Sequence to fold (1187 residues):
Amino acid sequence: MNREGWLMPYIRAHMGRFIMMIILGVLTAAAASMLMFTSGFLISKSALRPENILLVYVPIVGVRTFGISRAVLHYVERLVSHDAVLRILSQMRVRLFRVLEPQALMLRSKYRTGDILGLLADDIEQLQNVYLRSAFPGAVAVVIYAGVIAALGRFDGGFALMAAALLLILLAGLPLISLMMTARTQVRMKQERSRLYQRLTDAVMGLGSWVISGRAGDFLSSYEEDEASIARADRALKRWARIRNLIGQLIVLAVVLLMMTWSAKQTAAGQMDGTFIAAFTLVVFPLMDVFLPLSEAAERLPGYRDSLNRLEQISSGSCSDSRTEEALKSRRSQTAEQHREQGTADGSWKQGSRMASADIRLEDVSFSYKGNTEAAVHGLSLDIPQGKRIAVIGRSGAGKSTLLGLIQGAFKPDSGTVRINGTAAADLGEDIPRIISVLNQRPHLFDTTLANNIRLGRVSATDEDVRRAAEQAQLAALAGTLPGGYDTPMREMGQRFSGGERQRVALARILLQDTPVVILDEPTVGLDPRTERELLKTILRETQGKSLIWVTHHLALAESMDEIIFMEGGRIEMRGTHAELMERYPRYRNLYRMDRPGYALERELAKVGG
Amino acid sequence: MGRELLGLKGIRPVMAAMAGLTLIQTIAIILQAKWLAETVSALFAGEPLQEQYGTAVLFLSAFIVRQLTVLCQQSIAARFAEVTGTRLRSQLMQRLFQLGPRYAGENGTGSLVTLALEGTPKFRNYIELVLPRMLAGGFTPVLILAYIYTRDTASAVILTITMPILIVFMILVGLAAKKQTDKQMKSYRVLSNHFVDSLRGLETLKFLGRSRAHSSTIASVSDGYRSATMKTLRTAFLSSFALDFFTMLSVASVAVSLGLRLVNGSMVLVPALTVLILAPEYFLPVRMVGADFHATLDGKEAGQAMQAIIDGKSAEELSGKEQLKPDYTWKQGSKLILKGIGVTREESSQPSLEGAELELRAGLKVGIIGESGAGKSTLIDVLGGFLRPTDGHIEVDGQRLDSLSEAAWRKMTVYIPQQPYIFSSTLEENVKFYPPQASREDVERAVESAGLSSLAASLPGGYEEMIGGGGRTLSGGQEQRVALARAFLSDRPIILLDEPTAHLDIETEYELKSTMLELFEGKTVFLATHRLHWMTEMDMIVVMDQGRVAEVGTHEQLMHKRGVYYSLVREQEEGAA
Fold:
């Protein structure tokens, strides 16, 4: 249980700010209470009609001061607390990013479903409420509680104990009961809600099938039933919230009556001046505002648990890959961290220098994912000297992605070797991006300008370099139509930006990166044939002389590759040039004939002379 | 606030109840203050505690009555909010199903799902908050003020003057904050999105060798975001500062003025205490409105967004009247004729389909081909009844129809999209989608025909194995086979396919093709694709070009013709050279 991992260190690091927050919070509550206290005292004292107005001068000043200071204190308190929390969030973001960074290439396969990254970003936003809405009000309430009991203790120890017991119900009793009563329902509701989310997304994705099947009504009614069950749980929670409020208010009532009788008795016994009766009675109402919201704050706690668990899981590295684990371990020790930073700094001179050539050689490579007995890649040998272009074809699960991961050094082979210029790929680490660039199915375009997106390929690139890369990627015409040219923010391009154009931006980026090896990981999936063909032609033209490893699902243009590899079950089933494959394998001929139905006919037509 | 609330169904009795409860509540608040003041001043005057029990009990009852009315208001509001929210959601859902897949695709599945699932609770929350507050905000302060006038005019005047000042300041500060926020909206948005953007692009950054250096960018952008936010907050919080400041100042002024008048004897203690206790109550409703401002705004907007979809077009306009007889069957010799069919979408002036003339017999296999945007999908949508043509008409076995959005026509068709819908359920449930009452034997036969037997055998749970989002993920080819199994099982005579194989690798496509051809046996098939190899299997090819039917014929005929189809084929098969 290292759950504090995402909460406590930040409290420690910002202790000063937190103490400040609590002091301000306490002062705010105290000012509001003292306003009513001094007001009560003032009018009681005044009612005695003192001969000299100066006798009530102090309470008059007090009333005004407390009235004004409460507003000012509250304002400052909110600013200080938000500032502190935003500082914490900023550190959390950096930490999360650093935790995720070494796992970058594994994330997609590890969290197949859903937008885990968006979820984690939300989790961090969520954690600000732990501080602002639960921890902070709780701490303020505890201090106020202690203060009130101490103050009462000075008058009457026995009464102070009684008040302590009563207020403890508001401070801890009711919140705890609330937490226990609602936690399970909340968790269940959350689960049911996410199930509904799944169902509804399913249904909307499959809307066409539902409509055609004529069963839309079935779905709607069964969906409403599920919703009704959540609504029932929700109703129970709300009912409890109302009852809880009522209980809270009844305790307030009890405290008021208690205070009143106690101060009356004290007065009667001559222990206290009668002017304090009103003061002690009226102060109860603003004081209770500190305690009443605590139950709701407690009910929020289960909501944070998921977020914390997820962050904890990610950062504890319950991940499959050993490399990730190692990286994470080294991250934990501060010295290793510094060492690493130096390492990058030393390596930075290399960043500018371009790697001219890279020979990739895989020898008898086998690899299986952790917890999987079946090998994802088995006895694979492949030689890609600088400049060779290969196409990789295979079903999903044939081992294509694993092959790419091995070449990129993301996975260490269980047996055999993957070497780039004689060095094991897995040892190249941060040098890989200077050797290999990747264009995959969905390259990310960042929320910045077109030029900045391209420049990510080489940060030191001049405007002229960026422009040239864009022209090579055939983006010049598009940039010309944009309102701000290359400086147009990506988002403002909106719908004008098609799938093919997005790929061209990513292409310009890797052209700028200018590596000797380019991996194309199905970059044309989802594009229509014309766009696909034009994009591929641009890619093939502009990557002349570079090694090309192209994972594709059609044969279109594959025949112009130096070698075509068919993978199945982690092995290479067929390999050779287009001509060799045509000659040797009937299976390849069948596939080719299907991919090119016009090809045969065209020949016939040519024969007939049509 | 909330004018459209008054249009909600069943709001009148709810409002009446709220009004009654608010009145009782306000009276309770006043009495509670009065009796508390009386008790305290009696005690202050040195009267014995025992004699005050009567008034104390009155205070206690007023207090409890007040809390009970709050409870009643909340439960009435909650019940009404639940009913209203549920109704709105189910209307929204029905409307979504009427609008069909095209609408969902255009508006984003994610945002529609989020609206239905998260918008409803937000809207409900809004009603729950706003219903009790709406009347309390108007009634309670006025009644309390009126009472204070009867007890002490000077205090009442102070309170009366404060309220408008407070509201004006709140509005002014609010506007200033909004102006400032709007001004930095753009950079603000970029800053706040930067982190998610970086996480989503992590893989790309890694490929580019930029990922490690990027963490310092995150730190600096986050810091920039913090200072921008703090700048906005400094103004935004001023609004509640104004509220606090004027409220507290006003209470303090009342207290001091009461004190001074007590000193010179123009006032007695009981009314003074009463007024002092009532002063914060007078401001309470306004403070509540301020506190929940954002929650109510969110809920209101969600409600409006949902209502906008529901009000879009009437159900009549969307689905039209059923014209085909419910027992209509498409059989051997049936005929479908499209006459001058055109579709112009509201938002564009360019028709996506124009003057389509087609004559189709039962049992034909029709391939629909063309470039992206040529009108293939629109034609499939018209044939599937997802889209109502804006021009022309359709004849089915001689009967003239405005569209194919007919329940009887849908019963004849099976639809297989590019990514078939695998819902989160068992394999068996997924297969028997069209006829849910099908027997296990029938399911097994369909699975066998679709080439899924080996998958079914390899699953630990067999037919009971959960698949789809909540279970085992299937590959693209397996998903397509599930869709085929459904079609085999349904035995409906018309099959519509929209790019069924474009996303699959060529070997999977090759294997699927033979299964699909078996399925097509004896059926009427409409297959839209840009994979050319299907065309040689079709009895008739419809070539779409810029929203029009450019050519109709068989593969051989069209190749010989050397028209649009021929150049499509040539273009696609041209090599890299």
User: Anything to note?
Assistant: Residues 365 and 517 of chain B are 10 Å apart (CA to CA). The radius of gyration of chain B is 35 Å.
